[in-house]
Amino acid sequence: MSSKYFVLGGDIKKSLTEGYHLDLKKLLSDGFKVTRKHFLPLVSACLFIMLASFSLLSLFIDTDTSLSDPKVIALFFVFALLIAPPLMTGLIMMGVHHSVGLKTNSFHLFHYFKMLLKLSLAAMMVNLMTNAVSMVFGQIFGSAGFVLSVLVLLYLKMSFCLVYPLIAEKKASPVTALKLSFKLVHKNIGQFTQLLVIFCVLFVFGLITSGIGLLFVIPYCINVLGIVYRQICGVSIAVTDTNDHDSGPDDSSGSDSSSGSRHGGFEA
Questions:
Q1: What dihedral angle (degrees, nearest 10) is formed by the CA atoms of 162, 166, 167, 170?
Q2: What does the pLDDT read at residue 263?
Q3: In the 3-class helix/strand/coil scheme, how is 119-141 assigned residue by residue?
Q4: Residue ranges making up the domain that contains 180
Q5: pTM given for the model
Q6: How far apart are CA 186 and CA 193, in angstroms?
Q7: SS3 per residue for the chain
Q8: How many domains is the chain partitioned into structurally?
Q9: What is the pLDDT of residue 139?
Q10: How would you write the pLDDT of the chain (268 residues) with one tens digit per residue?
Q11: 254-260: long-range contacts (C-beta < 8 A, 24 or more apart)?
């Protein structure tokens, strides 16, 4: 039994030096196909996160509790820095795995708690930047600063949207992942902005349907982000050949990569 390693999709070095182009129409179409094929694991994972969040809130916060209560602030920071980063990484990596034709299950959501320190450090740095910007804009522009801070928040979230998969899949350090994500997004900031607008419209649609639409919108956006990551950075996988025959990865999601008969298991 032997393992062979492949990179499916793009090349991160080439993306950084030469740039890249996203076919948004095909990207959105592929996202729909992947979501239809791998819907249940992601929607189950999303439901778990929502239920866990509501349970934590109801356990520690009641109707008489103020948002400025130290207990509430401490709970928010614990969730934002210690719980949310590995869970979000699990969600995004499920999308990455789907983008190269790998099956997942809801338990993959918890796979990245072993990288808690690196993920929490990255989340802390992003949160510090966003909070600092919000405070500065609020002080300078007053009520108008809120609108500006929301726009800057969306911009920063977009700029660092590849941080978690870069840490999880490329094993990058938090600082390196932040730099790489920022550079990669700004290599094609126009198309990323278009994608962000599309995501925002979809989330608004999900909200006006009493939140029911989010059960499709969130898995869809996660899978689209997974495809974007594959096309820009490439996804390294190991193919275990149990029959000692030449084999290649099965690209069931239409990625630009080598193909062949699949034997054994994949490890992304």
A1: 170
A2: 33
A3: HHHHHHHHHHHHHHHHHHHHHHH
A4: 2-267
A5: 0.84
A6: 10
A7: CEEEEEEECCCHHHHHHHCCCCCHHHHHHHHHHHHHHCHHHHHHHHHHHHHHHHHHHHHHCCCCCCCCCHHHHHHHHHHHHHHHHHHHHHHHHHHHHHHCCCCCCHHHHHHHHHHHHHHHHHHHHHHHHHHHHHHHHHHHHCCHHHHHHHHHHHHHHHHCCCHHHHHHHCCCCHHHHHHHHHHHHHCCHHHHHHHHHHHHHHHHHHHHCCCCCHHHHHHHHHHHHHHHHHHHHCEEEEEEECCCCCCCCCCCCCCCCCCCCCCCCEEC
A8: 1
A9: 78
A10: 566 778 888 999 999 999 999 999 999 999 999 999 999 999 999 999 888 888 877 766 666 666 666 777 777 888 888 999 999 999 999 999 999 999 999 899 999 999 999 999 999 999 898 888 878 877 787 777 778 888 888 999 999 999 999 999 999 999 999 999 999 999 999 999 999 999 999 999 999 998 889 999 999 999 999 999 999 999 988 777 666 544 444 444 444 544 333 333 333 4
A11: 254/30, 255/8, 255/9, 255/99, 255/100, 255/101, 255/230, 255/231, 256/9, 256/10, 256/231, 257/6, 257/7, 257/8, 257/9, 257/100, 258/6
Helices 39-60, 70-78: crossing angle, 10 deg rounding: 160
Query: How far apart (Å, rounded) are the C-alpha atoms in residues 172 and 36?
Result: 31
CA distance 70 to 92: 31
Whole-angstrom distance, CA of residue 266 vs CA of residue 264 = 7
CA dihedral 174, 178, 179, 182 (to 10 degrees): 170
